[in-house]
């Protein structure tokens, strides 16, 4: 069986010339052998297409890995900033405990007012960073925020209420940086005999 193939020849002014091609020469372009050593045009095209698809898949994998790396790096940088802030805050917090003790020792009202002004300024700076003081006195004891140093018995207060605060506790972004050290009310249980 034969078919006609149109081939353009020179010069362009002349009409196209049709040539007939045998089925055998057309079969040269088609190969169904799928032999690795085959050098026909169809096998070469398939190999190139497979190789191109393989490279495209590798590029997609590399791009996905890079996107994951970028996201992990951003999260790591954010966490490093938070850790740095917490480290600096932990260094400053003991100063506030010292101010509390200093106010108890100073009897001169002018000096005491100066200490309170400095303490207030440090508190405001910490509040700006997102640090909040844990309210303890008069609140029920909560082991998530409080560390009980000792217990006392006061029948006028409910059982488990914080009576006094030895050292203040602080929270940064819902994370406890320093637990409040407190004294808790513990009512004595009556023994039934």
**Major β-sheet annotation:** 3 strands, antiparallel
The SS-based structural class is: alpha+beta
What would the principal axes of the Cα set say about the shape?
A: elongated
Return the string of H and E elements. Answer: EEHHHEEEEEE
Helical region count? 3
Number of strands: 8
Spatially, the strands of the biggest sheet line up as 3-6-7
As a whole number of angstroms, the C-alpha radius of gyration is: 41 Å
State the share of residues found in helices, binned by percent.
40-55%
Chain-averaged pLDDT: 81
Determine the N-to-C terminus distance: 117 Å
Low confidence ranges: 23-28
Q: What proportion of the residues form beta strands (DSSP E)?
A: 15-25%
Summarize the model shown.
This protein is an alpha+beta fold and 193 residues long.
């Amino acid at each position: 069986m034969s078919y006609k193939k149109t081939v353009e020849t020179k010069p362009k002014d002349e009409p196209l010339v049709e040539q007939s091609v045998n089925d055998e020469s057309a079969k040269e372009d088609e190969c169904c052998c799928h032999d690795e050593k085959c050098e026909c045009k169809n096998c070469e095209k398939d190999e190139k297409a497979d190789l191109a698809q393989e490279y495209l898949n590798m590029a997609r994998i590399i791009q996905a890995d890079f996107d994951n790396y970028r996201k992990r790096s951003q999260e790591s940088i954010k966490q490093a900033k938070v850790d740095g802030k917490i480290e600096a805050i932990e260094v400053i917090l003991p100063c506030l405990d010292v101010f509390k003790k200093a106010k108890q020792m100073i009897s001169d009202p002018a000096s005491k007012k100066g200490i309170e002004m400095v303490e207030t300024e440090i508190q405001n700076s910490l509040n700006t960073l997102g640090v909040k003081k844990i309210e303890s006195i008069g609140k029920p004891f909560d082991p998530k925020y409080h560390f009980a140093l000792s217990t006392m018995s006061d029948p006028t207060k409910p059982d488990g209420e914080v009576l006094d605060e030895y050292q203040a506790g602080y929270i940064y972004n819902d994370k406890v940086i320093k637990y409040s050290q407190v004294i808790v009310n513990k009512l004595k249980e009556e023994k039934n005999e």
